[in-house]
Write a structure and sequence with these properties.
Blueprint lengths: L1 H24 L11 H23 L5 H20 L4 H27 L6 H31 L24 H6 L4 H9 L16 H16 L8 H9 L1 H19 L1 H12 L6 H49 L3 H6 L2 H27 L1 H10 L2 H7 L1
Helix pairs in contact: 1-3, 1-4, 2-3, 2-5, 2-10, 4-5, 8-9, 8-12, 10-12, 10-14, 10-15, 11-12, 12-14
Protein name: ABC transmembrane type-1 domain-containing protein
GO molecular function: ABC-type transporter activity; ATP binding
InterPro entries: ABC1_TM_dom (IPR011527), ABC1_TM_sf (IPR036640), ABC_transporter_C-like (IPR050173)
Length: about 400
Amino acid sequence: MALIDLVNLLLLAIYILSLLIAACTRQFRFRASDLPLPCALASPCCALLGIACFFLGAWTTLSPHGTELFVRGLVWVLLSVSLVFRPTRLSGALAMAWWALDAILITAYSLEKIVTGRNLRVLDVLSWALSLLLLVSAIGVCRASHGATASAGGGEEFEPLLATGGRERRTFGDAGFFSRLTFTWMDSLLRLGHSKPLDLGDIPPLDADDEAAEACRTFLVEWHRRREPLKSTSNLVLWVLAECHKKELFLTALYTLLRTLSFAASPVMLYCFVSYSDRPVRDLGTGLALIAGLVVMKLVESLSQRHWFFGSRRLGMRMRSALMAAVFEKQLRLSNEGRGRHSAGEITNYIAVDAYRLGEFPFWLHLGWSMPSGGARKWRLGILPKKNFLL
C-alpha cells in the first residue's frame, strides 16, 4: 500500500502543477451543469472517505499508521477536487490518468490480499469500490470529451460576424479557479468602491445563468412540462423550482456538509493535540501531521462556509427572479377586468414578499439540517471548556 500512496502523491503533485498553470493563464471554466453523473456521484464520496481517513488518522496518532491515513485522506480529498475541476485539456488528461491508474493499483492490491487469504478491512473495501467508480468516471469523461469535440468541430466559421450578444466580459464568468475559490474576482470592484462611490455602470453585468430572462425561461419550460399531465397543482411551484435548481441545491448541500464535518471535527483535533502534548516522547512527524491536519480542516471549514453562503444567496436570487419575471409576464396577459381589480403595483407587492422569503429558503434549508453538528460538538466536549475557564 505504500507504493500506491507514493504513486498517488506523485500524480497529485503533477495535477496541482497543472492547476497552477491553468490559474496563471486564466483558462479555468466550470459550470455545475457540465458535471457528468459518475463524477457528481464520486466526488462527494471521495471527499467523505478522505475526511474519514483524517478522522481515523487523528484517532490513531499514537500508532505508525496515523501518518499513512493522513496521506490517504489528503489524496482522496484532492481526488474529489479533480473530479470537479479540470480547467484545461492537460489537467483533464492528467486527472483521468490518475483515476485509471489508481483504480488499477487498488484493484491489484485488493485481489492480491484476497488470493493470499488476508482479510480486507472496511477502509480497503470502500477504497476499492470508489476506485472502480473513478474508473467509470474516467471512461465517461473520455467519451463525453470526444463527443463534444466531434460536435463542436467547424462551428465557429458559421457564426455571424456582427453578432455581439453574449460577448460582454463578465467578472464572475471569466474568473479562474483560484479566483473563484478565494473570491478574489471581487477585488477590482472593491478597490473601485474604496476609491469612489459606485455608479450603476461600475457594476459588472450578471452571468448568463443568473439573468432573470434565463431563470424565467427555465422555470416556465419546466412549469408547462409538469402542469400538462397533472390535474392537481398543489405545491407545483416548489417542485418546479426543485427540478430547475437541483444541481445547485446539491452543490450547496455538499459545501454545507463539508463545513459541518470540519466543524464537528474540532473536538477530535483538540483531543489529538492534548494527547500528543501528554506524550513523554513526541514524534516530529506526528506533530507536523497534526498541524497540517488542523490547517487543512480550517481551510475546508472557512472556504466551504463562504461558498455555502454565496451559493445559497445566488440560488435564492435565481428563484426570486424567476418567480417575479413569470408573474410579471402573466400580468401582461391579464384582461381589462383583472387589471381593474388589481393594479400592476399591487400584484407586484403581493408576490414580492413571498418571493423574497423563497429567496432566503436555500440558506435556511441547509442551515436547518446542519444544526445538529453544534449539539454533537457540545456533547463531545462536555463541560471541559467551562471547567477550564473557571480554573
